[in-house]
């Protein structure tokens, strides 16, 4: 039996694939990923927040401490 974190990561990936497929098959129910990204990136504040989040992740996980 694989460890619990492996099962959780696989479950999250499978849920993401199912949501992506639903967006492709039924765009009236769930917005496709491209449309979601267009909507999010439309506003300047969300672009700035996304940049800050990526900077924070890079600073905490990819720098040599």
Fold blueprint:
Blueprint: H1 4-25, H2 33-40, H3 44-61
Overview in brief:
By secondary structure, the protein is mostly helical. The protein has 3 helices and no strands.
Our measurement of the CA-to-CA distance between the termini, rounded to an integer number of angstroms, reads: 35 Å
Instruction: Indicate the multimeric state.
Output: single chain
What characteristic shape results from the CA principal axes?
A: flat
Q: If you average the pLDDT, what whole number results?
A: 88
Structural summary, described in words:
- The mean pLDDT is 88.
- This protein has one domain (4-61).
- It is 74% helix and 0% strand.
- It has helices spanning 4-25, 33-40, 44-61.
- The N and C termini lie far apart (35 Å).
- It has 65 residues and is mainly alpha-helical.
- It contains 3 helices and no strands.
């Amino acid at each position: 039996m694989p460890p619990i974190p492996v099962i959780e990561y696989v479950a999250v990936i499978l849920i993401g694939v199912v949501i992506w497929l639903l967006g492709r098959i039924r765009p009236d129910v769930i917005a496709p990923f491209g449309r979601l990204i267009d909507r999010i990136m439309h506003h300047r504040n969300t672009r700035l927040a996304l940049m800050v989040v990526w900077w924070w992740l890079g600073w905490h996980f990819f720098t040599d401490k």
